[in-house]
Structure prediction request, 131 residues.
Amino acid sequence: MGNIYKNKNQILLLELIPIYMPPDYHYSNVDWLFYPISHSKKSGINSLTLHHVTKVANGGTLCIENAALLTKRAHQDLNTCEARDHILYEEINDFFREIILYRKPPEDYLMREAKEYNYALKRAIYPNRYK
Prediction:
């Protein structure tokens, strides 16, 4: 059996999970935008990815202080939002910076805010479905 190679983003993602989503954390089944995390082929795989809060192209670095935990679907939707509603995109990244400041699993009030951003994000990119 061969070695499994991980890129730098994957290595950082593995460092973030124990900090922000320990096994006993009651929101460990959703990401920072309240998208469900799924590893099941039956329900559709929606695993965690690393989002650079400040893009590397804009001077962001690959470090814990510039990383948010998002599922693949949330990451796609956030990238779409960047093109359609840049103000909301920046507001969401500021929200991630707030979570990062605490360097611990997000408190309930932050996860309630995540749920609100989830809805705002979906309204911005799927206006006919979410009114």
Q: What stands out?
A: The CA atoms of residues 20 and 102 lie 10 Å apart. The beta strands are 48-52, 67-71.
